[in-house]
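Today's session is about reading a structure prediction critically. Students often jump straight to the picture, but the first step is always the sequence itself: look for stretches that repeat, for charged clusters, for runs of hydrophobic residues. Only then move on to the predicted structure, which in these notes is written as discrete structure tokens rather than atom positions. Here is the chain we will use throughout the hour.
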Amino acid sequence: MNKEVKQSKTIKMKQLFCVVVTDPDYVIGLDSPIIFHVECDSQEQAEAFAIEDLSSQEDYGYEQEDIDTLDIFSYPITAENIIKI
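Below is the predicted structure for this chain, in token form.
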């Protein structure tokens, strides 16, 4: 009997990240945080997306020098983090 062997491929799944942007020194006058939920491959990609979106003239239009003063951090979202009611 001839059996076909299937090769397993490692498929990297995208992960959901929460990116939080705060303005601790009140440089741009941000009273509350801006929160992004980004599905991508890494935290670095998620934060890069947020920075790009913040500088986009179509979205927020902040200058890079102002963005550099913001606190931008991210963390992965897992099924355990999701509250179901």
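Discussion point for the tutorial: The chain has a mean pLDDT of 89.
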